[in-house]
Amino acid sequence: MHQGTTDQQLRYWIGxxxxxxxxxxxxxxxRCEDLTQLPASYAAKxxxxxxxxxxxxxxxxxxxxxxxxxxxxxxxxxxxGLPLLIGIDQEGxxxxxxxxxxxxxxxxxxxxxxxxxxxxxxxxxxVATAMAHQLHELGINLNFAPSLDVNNNRANPVINVRxxxxxxxxxxxxxxAMVNAMQQQGVLATIKHFPGHGDTHVDSHTGLxxxxxxxxxVQQTDLAPFAAVLQHSQPAMVMTAHIQYPALDxxxxxxxxxxNMLKPATLSRRMLTELLRxxxxxxxxIITDALNMAxxxxxxxxxxxxxxxxxxxxxxxxxxxxxRSEQDLTGLQQLIDAVLDAVxxxxxxxxxxxxxxxxxxxxxxKLAHQKAPATDPHRLSADRQLxxxxxxxxxxxxxxxxxxxxxxxxxxxxxxxxPEQTKCQGWQQALTLHQVKLKxxxxxxxDQSAAxxxxxxxxxxxxxxxxxxxxQSAAxxxxxxxxxxxTPVQLSPAEQKxxxxxxxxxxxxxxxQNLLVALRTPxxxxxxxxxxxxxxxxxxxxxxxxxxxxPLSGPAYDAVIACLLGKIQPKGQLPVQLD
Length: 579
Known about the structure:
Rossmann fold; alpha/beta; TIM Barrel; 6-stranded mixed sheet; 19 helices; single chain; 18 strands
């Protein structure tokens, strides 16, 4: 250890390098409730442990006045008078934590990617500006967005529509636009998930993915957007992926099961220090993805994971484990003790620890000089309009329109087929908004029997079918908490797709017109080329909560109906290759 470095000084640096979540508070009887106000005991612990930051989730964020109070209390709990780093995953689309009762979620990254061919970086810039302004106004100063993952695997369960697309140059262009726009509004941006989470079929929330690309492919595809954005922007943070890349690091370490395993990026000095810091020249803060995700936590105890990632070169360990009670906060004290022991034993370098804490502190000092923007009530309604404009600009027609000449939506006997009832209500809201006069309207859900579906198809002229796949990943859950109370669909996405294919094949045989809308990933549309007369992709299916003026309405539904009425053209272009 360095002479003259006190125990207290080391603890301060370690505290700076930890970022916790405080989603819920649980009683000893395991009754848990969302944490929406900062308990005095939590504030005291944050101050005592001199933590550098906190990440907030939908559980913590109920309405604007409450959020402002919570962030203000958190900033005041800082141990050194500097603002805390208060982070959030506000990517847009299915990963949006601000309450949708007040704030537009916007369609996500793939919708932005679909606008690039026609509008360049206009929408990534405008959406990032709007989101950052909302966050800044609420006292949130760090956004864990954008994702620079190149989604070149249609089976990717965790990235998929959270990616701008499968072309590295376009991903980089949209990513740089978002980083610059956010940071101009005073919110720190994070590019993730380094070195790339696009070509995986395992979700790192539930397992440990591995990418076996040869080095040349890794450089030209996975790393390319990171290299480009680091060249043209100065993102405040880079977030690591819990993912193995043998081409970048084939060295191993021993996990808690006693097995040798390939180092995932989060624990790899080759990837974080040698590649990102030294080779790519990144000077900012490296933060881990949540360490309580299974990709790390199933192999390492929390303290060991933190020590390993600090040794690899990470500046901030995000969510070393879940904080759900005061006992958990006390456990954090033990984790800090363990990291301190690792410094004393020489497993961690004092010089690196100090330099790392200094990188975090320099961000916090910058934030201390910012003034919060004045709240502007008109701004949110402009953001809502932008949300609708994005839904319209990204709407993509896949393949040719095979509807007969002169086909019109008005006057049809229309059958809606959707995975579940709330999606039918989304379409009904859009039909009402556009005052569409139909001869008849029915709605079927995919959990109805094949015979029931056929009877309803027989009565219709036109079928408007909805496809949603893949299922939500752990990163997305909790976005629409009030909708999750509604009946979940019993069928898997693969079963839903098969059932829909059977239903539309039958409809086609009966001479019906079939319209198919992919409300999430566009990849499945290629399987319906023979049975659908018109195929549209929206990349997102956000709906208003039940308390809204138009409950369960959504920008994508409104945009599709406007398109079917000829009010708008589908100008979006697919940002990914379909089979």
